[in-house]
Structure formats: structure tokens, C-alpha cells
Write a structure and sequence with these properties.
Strand order of the largest sheet: 1-2
CATH superfamily of the largest domain: GntR ligand-binding domain-like
CATH architecture of the largest domain: Up-down Bundle
Strand content: under 5%
Number of domains: 2
Largest sheet: 2 strands, antiparallel
Oligomer: single chain
Number of strands: 2
Radius of gyration: 21 Å
Length: about 260
């Protein structure tokens, strides 16, 4: 049986707002409170249960999680170091967002790392890994046809994991691990871009074709093209959102 961390009252953990589900799971299997709080908040940010720009008030979060403010403060400090939380002079700690420059920086690094991963997969992927990649492509097409975008997003995420796992270079793997939280959160953001998830299915299929053919150069080229395609859609969506927000702000209100 899992032992709850000292100081955590499970019955008080995981608050709900009117009309919403719990932000935190209240499930844990760690002895150390700080680690548990860190993982709860981190996952809530990645899953967009805590959205970009949302304030993170220590006292409220401590009450909601059923802990003191100290582990919350320590967790927020760790998350700030990861770039998932930022501190502003007016709002205090908030969930960080992504500017267009942030997207370009992250995707530039992602292109390098995932290109290297695709190359590694083409060079030395096991038969089991190759078979699973082919299965993911087939299942993705079937799920896309059925219109189940939630399951489709999960399959696309698994594709990335299988490709990442083919990397044997420890330094490249470390860089991938450092980026995973941001990539997972950005992946959630891209799910809302019309047609993006569906397009990724065929782009992944193209990458797998080169990997199965044992063509490292082509696998890397196709993976890089896929990443650039996602970035372009992300930037266009961000620009459209900014324009819409600016238009709303400039629209005069009718006098009462």
C-alpha cells in the first residue's frame, strides 16, 4: 500500500472550481512532500489544467493541495528553473507562456534533436521498434478516419517516444529529457490548431517509411521537414490569436 507523504492530507488535495474538474490528482506514491507537490503542479501545467498566464498563489495552492506553503514555494522555484513558471513584478508567480521567439528557439532545438533521433532509428532501430512505428501509423490513420482526435493525439505522442528511445547518445538523450515537458505542453497546444493533428499522421508515415528503408539521411530530412511544418502552423495560429485579441481590444463598446 502506498504511504502518503508526511504533511499531505489527501482528503483536502485537488480542488475544483465551479463547473470544472480537479486540477490536481490527489494521488501520490512518494514519501517526500516537496517532490509530490512539484510533480502535481508540473503535470497540471503540462496538461494545460493550469493554463499559460494563470497566477500561482502559494497560499491558495497550499490549501488546495493540503500542504504547507514551503513545499509549494520550493516546487515553484524548481519549475521556474525549468521555464514552466515565471515571476512577474505585478502578478507574482504565473504559468509561463510562449512567445513567437520562444517557439522558434524550442523548435530549432527540436528539429536538431528529433532529426538526430530519426537518423538513429534508421541506423539501428530494433525490429520490435520498427514494427511498433508501423502499427502506430496504421492505427493513427484508422483513428483519424473515425474522428477520435483525443486517441490520435496519444498515438502521435507515442510515436515521438518510440523514436526518442532509439537514441543511444547520452548527451542527446539528456537534451531530449530536458525539453520533454515543453514539447508535451506545446503538443497539447497544437492539438487545437485545425488540421494540424491530422496532417502529422501522414508526415509521421513519411518518416517511418524512410526509417524502415534504413535511409538515415532521408529519415532525418523528413523529420526536420515535419518539425518545420508544425512550427509554421504554430506561428500562424499564435499570430491569428494575437490579431483576434487586438481586434477585440480595439472594438468600441456600446454606451450603456
Amino acid at each position: 500500500m502506498n504511504e502518503k507523504p508526511e504533511g499531505v492530507e489527501v482528503e483536502n488535495a485537488g480542488w475544483t472550481e465551479p463547473g470544472s474538474s480537479a486540477v490536481f490528482s490527489a494521488r501520490h506514491d512518494r514519501r517526500k512532500v516537496t517532490d509530490w507537490v512539484y510533480e502535481e503542479v508540473r503535470q497540471a501545467i503540462i496538461d494545460l489544467r493550469l493554463k499559460p498566464g494563470e497566477p500561482l498563489r502559494e497560499a491558495a495552492m497550499a490549501e488546495q493541495l493540503g500542504v504547507s506553503k514551503t513545499p509549494v514555494r520550493e516546487a515553484l522555484t524548481r519549475l521556474e528553473q525549468e521555464g514552466l513558471v515565471e515571476t512577474t513584478s505585478f502578478k507574482g508567480a504565473v504559468v509561463s507562456g510562449y512567445s513567437q521567439e520562444d517557439f522558434r528557439d524550442i523548435y530549432e532545438l527540436r528539429e536538431l534533436l528529433e532529426g538526430a533521433a530519426a537518423r538513429a532509428a534508421a541506423e539501428s532501430a530494433s525490429e520490435a521498434a520498427l514494427a511498433r512505428l508501423a502499427e502506430i501509423v496504421q492505427q493513427s490513420r484508422e483513428v483519424r478516419a473515425a474522428g477520435d482526435l483525443t486517441e490520435l493525439a496519444g498515438l502521435l505522442g507515442e510515436f515521438d517516444v518510440v523514436v526518442y528511445d532509439q537514441v543511444t547518445n547520452r548527451r542527446v538523450r539528456a537534451l531530449i529529457e530536458n525539453l520533454k515537458a515543453h514539447l508535451a505542453r506545446i503538443g497539447k497546444l497544437t492539438e487545437g490548431i485545425p488540421g494540424r493533428v491530422e496532417a502529422s499522421v501522414e508526415e509521421h508515415a513519411s518518416v517511418v517509411e524512410a526509417i524502415v528503408a534504413k535511409d538515415p539521411d532521408e529519415a532525418e530530412r523528413r523529420m526536420r521537414a515535419h518539425i518545420r511544418s508544425v512550427l509554421n502552423d504554430q506561428l500562424e495560429a499564435a499570430a491569428s490569436t494575437a490579431e483576434a485579441a487586438a481586434g477585440t481590444a480595439e472594438t468600441p463598446t456600446d454606451p450603456a
